[in-house]
Design a protein that fits this description.
Layout lengths: L1 E12 L2 E12 L3 E5 L6 H8 L7 E6 L2 E2 L4 H4 L3 E4 L11 H11 L8 H8 L15 H13 L5 E5 L7 H16 L3 E5 L3 H4 L4 E6 L2 E6 L1 H6 L5 E5 L3 H11 L29 E7 L2 E6 L5 H10 L6 E5 L3 H18 L1
Parallel strand pairs: 3-8, 3-9, 6-7, 7-8
Antiparallel strand pairs: 1-2, 1-4, 4-5, 9-10, 11-13, 11-14, 12-13
Helix pairs in contact: 3-5, 4-5
């Protein structure tokens, strides 16, 4: 059974289209992730799912209930954690938790078993005001408040943004345990290591879904062989590789035709060697043009004043696939 079904969801803020005809479904008990940059539409989508705003077009149901006409019933089934810490700063940890339990007509004692592994980590600070907690503690308190009424679905908008690596790891371990309890979880994240923990992920950009699949299948959908190029002078390397996509001479000077060229060869016979050069950590990820070998690229970089560059064949990551899909989307938009 589908926990959430979205049909042609559209939403606008004035002239800006935040969501553009989105359709997808989330299975019951699934950990479903949304990956996308700021402004992609994730928060708007999550607020629609949390029954906080009405979409301009389309329809969404959660456990068969319409998010617009049946919002009162749904709010007892949903645990929502917005991206921005939204609990009462001047209330203590304990007071916030009791307040949210009371709103939903329950008690902390009744559902304590559900939040115990999370809450025990912040219980020693239960008399501290929420506004004085660290980032990681705030997130644990917010998750406890979202869970205290025993929801069937959790909607978490970038819950680990701005917290330390240890707290991020702990938080995702908690989500795995909650998934084991049968709770459906929808989460957005800017961290690709977190995306790999999801059952399925949706790549979203400018209000459109580019792809939905398991993390492994997303990674394997990259259309070309990918390489990582490394050199101590990374910025110069990036410029050189991007120039090689349009052409450089053996002296390293850009040409408008393609490259590399040998001395005496007319520039019109040159060809591009590299494509899709993007910086990643200490390397630059590239694809090679048809007929180009890594050895030829190394020689071209040496000619451009970058001797000693290393080129390694790698497995594409989700970021690589996302960038490739974005460029295809831009190309289609340009053609339209």
């Amino acid at each position: 059974m589908a926990a959430l079904e979205a049909y042609n969801i559209t939403h606008r803020y004035g002239r800006v289209t935040a969501l553009d005809d989105l359709s997808f479904n989330v299975d019951e008990g699934e950990l479903f992730g949304f990956i996308g940059p700021d402004g992609a539409g994730k928060t708007t989508l999550f607020r629609i799912a949390a029954t906080l705003i009405i979409p301009a077009g389309g329809r969404m149901t959660i456990f068969g209930l319409n998010t617009v006409s049946r919002y009162r019933e749904l709010r007892n089934l949903i645990g929502y954690m917005p991206g921005r810490f939204s609990l009462y700063h001047d209330l203590t940890v304990e007071e916030n938790l009791n307040f949210y339990a009371t709103i939903f007509g329950t008690t902390v004692k009744e559902n304590y078993y559900l939040i115990e592994p999370i809450y025990k980590q912040i219980e020693p600070f239960k008399k501290r005001q929420a506004g004085r907690l660290s980032g990681g503690m705030k997130q644990k308190l917010a998750l406890s408040c979202a869970l205290i009424h025993k929801p069937k679905i959790l909607i978490l908008d970038e819950p680990t943004t701005g917290v330390d690596a240890v707290s991020r790891t702990e938080f995702w371990e908690m989500l795995s345990r909650l998934k084991g309890e049968g709770i459906t979880i929808i989460v957005s994240t800017p961290y690709m290591d977190e995306a790999l923990r999801c059952d399925r992920i949706a790549l979203i950009q400018e209000g459109r879904i580019l792809d939905i699949n398991t993390p492994d299948k997303i990674r394997r959908s990259y259309s070309q062989q990918l390489y990582a190029v490394r050199h101590p002078e990374k910025y110069r390397l990036l410029l050189a590789l991007r120039a090689l996509g349009t052409g450089v001479t053996v002296e390293g000077q850009p040409t408008p035709y393609g490259a590399p060229v040998t001395e005496g060869q007319p520039p019109s016979e040159a060809r591009p060697m590299a494509g899709n050069a993007e910086p990643f950590g200490d390397s630059v990820h590239i694809t090679l043009s048809e007929g180009t070998t890594p050895a030829e690229l190394t020689a071209a970089l040496t000619s451009a004043g970058l001797p000693g560059a290393t080129i390694t064949e790698i497995v594409p990551g989700i970021e690589d696939v996302f960038l490739e899909l974005m460029k295809k989307e831009v190309g289609r938009s340009g053609e339209a």
